[in-house]
Amino acid sequence: MSFNELTLANLAAPQKNAIVGGPFGSNLVSKDYVDYGIPVIRGANMGEKWVGGDFVYVSREKSIQLSQNIAKPGDLVFTQRGTLGQVSIVPKHKHDCYVVSQSQMKLTVDPLKADVDFLYYLFKSPEQLEYIRNAAIQTGVPHTNLGILKKTPIKIPALLVQQQAAFILSALDDRITLLRETNTTLEAIAQALFKSWFVDFDPVRAKQEGRVPEGMDAATAALFPDSFEESELGLLPRGWSFGTLADLAELNPESWTTKVHPKTVLYIDLANTKNNEIDVTTEYVFDEAPSRARRVLRTGDSIIGTVRPGNRSFAYIYRAARNLTGSTGFAVLRPKVIKNAEFIFIAATQNSSIDYLAHIADGGAYPAVRPEVVANIELTVPHEEVIAAFHDIVAPLSSMIGENQLTIQTLVTLRDTLLPRLISGQLRLPEAEAMLEDLAA
Length: 441
What we know:
The protein is 36% helix and 19% strand. Helix 5 runs antiparallel to helix 11 and helix 5 runs parallel beside helix 12. The longest helix is centred in the last third of the chain and has 41 residues.
């Protein structure tokens, strides 16, 4: 397979402002932001293949003033400072244009020379990421600039080969995205049921008003009281109590020591955990593992990050691999009764709990809470039979989420294995297609 060697600037579309940086600092400041209008692409919007997430906006008039800093669907956006190596594609069907912030740069690709998806994957390859790091300006916070981006050396095959390679990698990414969206939906169903039963007390209110609780059979409805009682902390379903997570879970029940430990551990760090998804687990010989690799994890555990808790570094352990080990930066909550597992996880990670932990975290540049603070989060404790009924409904959803996560990990591993080999031409396209067929079989 033959490759053309050129610079990124050679792949820019033949039009004005095809490859540009963001506006000068004073041309875009926080007072320019409005409630709705033209979205601004910042680093927070570039965590995935497609630009997305929560945007800030500028008015249409302001975007006209920044016309040379506009990105449109199909453009590539690169991070200039912050998380070097970030690259995303501006999606279609959402907004007709975006403003690129001061910390980003954009490229409009000449479609006769290069495939946008292929270039995205090229810039995600280990070789290209290493080049970006080595070419970065190290003065102060490491950063790059438009001049460096334009001169970035690129090796690309024929356009048809680019498109075929990008098709395979995109198919994997699309499958991963679909599974993640499915998990988000399943988690939302469980969270909505938790809120209805244990926060809004909908079944209790229905029975108090003489109505049949919605969405449950008579046996489940009979488990709920039909009235409230006053308490020091407010109204409470009759017979229930106020308590803490510690009433239902053990805190950090197991830890490896220098004397008692396995030969190897499969390590989970806070940086690789976000919103109930663990991106990476790393196997270490115990003596060479990070010193924080101490928390023993079992199926049914909830892990909640205690450092910068607002970052939402939490996850449920759906199926613990052998010697699965978490950082001491996690508070590990292990249910005293296994049927309490899902209740504990949702109670510990609902928005009100995470917001509370983020609010009280102290330590300046390294805000954190003690694990005991997590265990002492207050909650309404219903009768055991009600929690068991909740488990019976939610456990199948959790099982599906866990299976989907295993599939996601398999697909991510395959994608990351294929990516550098397809990009470099080491792997022929028929071989990659055969691997996909084997996976689907």
